[in-house]
# Entry
Amino acid sequence: MKYLFSILAIISLIFLGAKSPLESEDNPIFNEKTKVSDVLERLGDKSIKHFPNTSYAGVSAAQGENLVKNGFFQTKSEKKSAKQSKHFVCTSCHNLEREDPDLSVADPQARLLYTSQRGIPFLQGTTLYGAVNRTSFYNGDYDKKYGDLVRDARNDIREAIQLCAVECAQGRELNTTELESVLAYLWKLELRLGDLNLDAQEYEQLEQGVRAKGNKKETIELLKSKYLQGSPATFVAPPENRKKGNELIGDPNNGELIYENSCLHCHEESRYSFFSLDHSKFSTKHLSKHFERYTRYSVYQVGRYGTPPMNGKKAYMPQYTEEKMSRQQMEDLRAYLKKASR
Ligand code: HEC
Ligand code: HEC
# Structure
């Protein structure tokens, strides 16, 4: 009987064209699954313009995902595309999950703990989760590395993807169908209100903001203060005196997390690099010994400058900015390698 009533109620709502019960004054419109972009749209914000163009033939979020994870694109009728890169896939350097407990700050130590609890790696590239919610890319010092190339990518996610495909992944450019498909996939990884640690009062403010007539600027600002609009990047040099290092006391346990979740992500069994590393004393001793030296195996060197792409062997190591590995974490890694090599 109860069911019959509810069914009748729903049917009459549909027929009478009444407002959905969700839209009425006292029911909340938003919950933790609500897309951040939907809220911004209802508030009249127009800062995000990079929606995928799905009118190109063959655009598919599923194939975008395939390209990001496996490096190629495949349509029903056609064969597999050529690999985007011989050396990497996007996930060599980028996570696809949320990686920070608080999205309004870039804190590498908070990220290290958050990612290692969830069993995901700790990497040089910023997670692609929420990438479509950002409005600027390759921020801060990246123009020092890529110069003019960054100019087009800074405010344009499509250019940022292409720059990364060619310069970071050392591969080929994506064609239009592939590019729009990757973008369609990235939209599946957009932020939800549940990612923003909003309290009940802030949810209420958002609701009020949407319902109120007039100026919604403050509500937009509140929402945007909860996540970074771009991922900051500060390049750091190795310490002046590599023997003394950063003059901070390293925590080997923290260093072990970095070794496991970052270095080994690429170097274990030569996954993305010819240079193979593991937990053996052979590996840790080698790195520990070279840490303070001026050689190609010094972690201060490769960690802060990366390695240059070499001719014919173009896999290279991206550097860690200060936001991706703090000076303290560098010393933690050093302390771990020293301890593990004894
Ligand atoms: C070898 C490592 C590497 C690979 C492979 C790689 N990237 Fe990146 N990517 C980076 C680094 C480093 C940055 C610098 C900015 C950042 O992410 O903080 C970056 C930046 C980006 C940005 C801009 C992010 C921002 O917020 O500034 C996007 C988008 C991106 N990459 C997409 C991709 C896609 C898509 C692929 C695969 C086709 C890919 N990347 C492959 C390392 C890589
Ligand atoms: C995104 C993948 C990636 C991550 C993460 C990474 N590396 Fe690398 N690393 C590479 C690649 C690629 C090279 C290029 C050399 C090659 O392939 O032979 C390289 C080169 C190096 C070299 C120089 C080797 C040589 O033959 O000159 C050292 C040392 C090194 N990495 C150490 C580390 C340490 C320590 C970490 C962790 C802090 C780390 N790497 C994290 C990909 C990575």
